[in-house]
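Notes, p. 3: input format for complexes.
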Amino acid sequence: MRTVDLRSDTVTSPTPEMRKAMAEAETGDDVFGEDPTVRRLEEKAAELTGKENALFVASGTMANLVCQLTHCGRGDEMILGDQSHIFYYEQGGSSALAGVHPRTVPNLPDGRIPIESIELAIRPKDIHFPKTRLIVLENTHNRCSGSPIPPDYMEKAGTLAQKHGVSVHIDGARIFNAAAALEVDVKKLTGPADSVSFCLSKGLAAPVGSLVCGSDSFIEGAVRQRKILGGGMRQTGVIAAAGLVALTEMVGRLADDHANCRRLAEGFANIPGLSVNLDLVKTNILFFDPIKENLPADVLVNALADNGVRMLALGPKTIRAVTHYHIQPDDIDYVLNVMNRLLSK
Ligand code: TLP
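Output follows (345 residues plus TLP):
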């Protein structure tokens, strides 16, 4: 049976060019700072995001945790959206491991957090309060329909943070999707932040890894935090080599994933029994709701899986589909056929 896996862009496998680069990679001991391929990847990441330096880490979750540990001390407060990945999907690592106090503020449906709400959440100096150290923004915003957050908002948040002496971290797991959708240089989005993390193993299709980018002094601190988390790795050039291919060859094709996602969303919008907010579909993530009576999301997801179409039920009435490198327009047409058939029963 044909399989169309739309559970996540994390399911992407390395391209033939990545496998070749991995086989030929020059390596060294990266804990001694001696892996030339890792260094090249870090330099490339710093250059693309407009930061002084960068650090290769195992995953997006580790990248976010390393940044929280580097920005904050135990008991410090971090302001973040109530729909953010750090708050929702990272097992509460902020409090369990970093000792950071999370202060959530509601996200708007497009992933932004109203600037006034952030300002209200910043603590005044008072012995009763924790110290606000960090504002976290997510771009694109996964749970908010993969929304790209535009440069003017990022700038406003940066200005606010500066006014209050607070740092800004961007969870930019899919920051290159945001830049592609907004048709801006990624630096326009990362400029106002003190740190940004992004993933190689999502839409960019590398098998492993994320980058943390920031100033030289920030990265000096981040190297120590990665080590204490057990993330100091040795001959990581073999995986960094795939990351270099991801950054040079895969960024330019993300718009194809966005076009396929749009095709899927428009198709679903024409199927009675499904509800889609087309205004929010701008990158490779689609959220939609089955509204047919007696059709909970998990039941529909299981019926789709029986037909080779894989998606995730993320709530009783919410399903997520994510397009990526292995999805072609005819896969989308196949999914639309299956969905039409299931909902006309
Ligand atoms: N997101 C995954 C799941 O964890 C939900 C997905 O399938 O979308 N930040 C953002 C915005 C993310 O979407 C993710 C992964 C991460 C961080 C964590 O990255 P990893 O999985 O590499 O730890």
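The first helix runs from residue 16 to 24.
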